[in-house]
Design goal:
Radius of gyration: 15 Å
Number of strands: 8
Strand content: 25-35%
Shape: globular
Order of helices and strands: EEHHEEHEHEHEE
Helix content: 25-40%
Structural class: alpha+beta
Distance between the termini: 24 Å
Number of helices: 5
Largest sheet: 8 strands, mixed
């Protein structure tokens, strides 16, 4: 079940919503910008451009989200109910976050943290115990970013397609 079926305010200035069919290139462009920025720092975490079919599938499934400010896309992410490729079969209920990318023009203002906290709130509202993610194990800055946000390192799966570290954060009670 998708985390979100319609637009919601993420902040007074930003909206988070499911990406729509036809917005594949919008999502891919945000991811490609992030991949280029990472590569410029010597980090090869993502391909230069993800396959169109993977984004199309995620949009169709309601898993790909866009964050906009004044109608302009400034971030994207994917949220799913399970991730057996990295996490295997688990009985613990979680939301799995992937492909989080913030446009350079919106970077440095805490948007990534706001997105993660929003996912955490949605997870808690639906009775999920964790927010989980997989990240490159050779990106100490990103690992530190997640650890600073309260994520705990769980494992580095030896059979992953690329060097990967798994992180999780127990959901937190939220007050309105």
């Amino acid at each position: 079940m998708p985390i979100l079926t319609g637009p919601e305010a993420l902040t007074p200035e930003t909206i988070i919503r499911p990406a729509k069919p036809g917005e594949e290139n919008t999502v891919l462009d945000l991811l490609a910008e992030a991949a280029t920025w990472l590569a410029g720092r010597g980090i090869r975490q993502w391909p230069r451009r993800f396959p169109q079919n993977s984004v199309r599938h995620q949009i169709k499934a309601g898993e790909a989200l866009l964050i906009t400010r004044q109608g302009k896309p400034i971030a994207t992410c994917v949220v799913v109910d399970d991730d057996p490729g990295f996490w295997g079969d688990t009985t613990e209920s979680a939301y799995y976050l992937g492909r989080l990318a913030v446009a350079r023009e919106a970077a440095g203002a805490g948007l990534g943290l706001r997105i993660i906290d929003w996912i955490d709130k949605k997870a808690a509202e639906t009775g999920k115990s964790f927010v989980r993610l997989a990240t490159a194990d050779d990106n100490p800055a990103l690992r530190g970013y997640y650890e600073h946000m309260g994520f705990e390192h769980v494992a580095d799966p030896p059979g992953a397609k690329w060097p990967t570290s798994l992180y999780q954060r127990r959901t937190r009670p939220h007050r309105e």
